[in-house]
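Q: Got a minute? One more chain.
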Amino acid sequence: MKWLGCLAVGAMMALPTAAQAGWREAETPHFQIYSDGGETQLVDFAQRLEGLDALLHKATGFPASSDPTKVRVIMLQTMAMVQKASHQRNPNLAGFYTVNIEGPIAVSSYSKDSDYTTTPEITLFHEYAHHFMLEYFPASYPAWYIEGFAEIASTSEPAGGGRMSFGKAASHRGYSLTSSRWIPVQQLLDATYASSPEDSDFYGESWLLAHYLTFAPKRQGQLRKYLGALESGVPNPAAAKAAFGDLDQLNRDARIYLEQANFTYHAVPIALPARDTIKVSELSPGASDLMEESASLSDAMSKEEMAAYLANLKQKAARYPDDPYALQLLADAEYLAGDYAASGAAIDRLLALTPNSVPGRVRKAMVLLQEADTLNGSAREARIAQARRLIVAANQSAVNDPGPLVAYYRSFVVAGERPPRQAIEGLMQAVGTIPADPGPRMMLVNELVRDGRLAEAIAYLEPLAYDPHRGRGRNGALELMQSLKQRLAASANQAPARPAS
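A: Always. Here it is, folded:
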């Protein structure tokens, strides 16, 4: 499922504009970064991304994870290539973030071939802030704060002396913020992107309010109080009034803050990884040749787009019949296109080369489950049993990998059996590992609803319901959440009163 990146902005990356032969991977504690540019500039950029992660940990007070989910970052040569990979007709798109069962991936570029004020690095920083929020504090936050937090992070940049700036003005929002319809703060606090007026700047105002509440001396402590109240279950309007006081006054103060345009920021000391600790390696010829196809694989493609994508992918992958990377990508694409026989054939070739491949075993298991869904009786049971053996073997090789956990849960759905507790707990673990992937999250929500665990279902659903990336129009996740809240309230009202002691 693709979450297209919001347009955000900051300092340009100092990577070369001319591609060099072959792709490299730079691996750090939190990232796997792929580029066909120069190694020196790649390491520089890897340090800056790790600097952003360290900055966000300091800004939020959340300790670093000992085993973080690494974000794959593919750096294409131009913004035009990024836009092509996104399958969007948006000439101003500077990058995007997507997540699937293989984990989170961000696509950006190392040059800016557009006059638009958005630059690739700040789009990437913005999207990583979203990833960071879901990774470390996936609580229920209103849409304005989700975007406001990401916009504050998006303008971070090295400030010299081992420091990173935090809170620099989002100058890319300047024109839109001052020329668009103003959303009263009272309305913004409870708004979603879908509900905001189309001639307003939801992202700009979200940044402004978040920045004001974070940096204005007269408002110190109020944002933390507000977020704490929301986390404890206080409704948004009540939490806002208790934390901010008179909301009409907050609205006036925010407008004055914009008009004065005196935006404070901090230069925060952070520790960057030493250059020699960043592992740089050359990609295989197949992986290098197929990196653009890796960036553009998406379940958001139309049938026509998928057909064209597959035709190109098959032609290129055929050059590398023994390259595990090419075979895995081909199997994944064929599966996404619904050609399970072709997917199975590609994954069989992969497993013949690398029998212990975790993603290979998971993909083979998913193909077997699709086959089982078309069979009956003992043939169906045999396919499911074979799939589970592969899933268990994959899980034993990588106990924290979400792929086997989700596939294990799916095996019971296909079998028409009630998933056991172990499968549900595994699904919960998978959602915790890849919190931005809506697929496993909705599986878990539906399972919890079936089990009558409405409060837990609501908690897992809230990040989807308030996700600004879901666009305008109908928000099914928000509608479901509101329905579940009504059911939960009704069941509480129907509960018998406890006898007096």
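A: The mean pLDDT is 89.
Q: Perfect, thanks.
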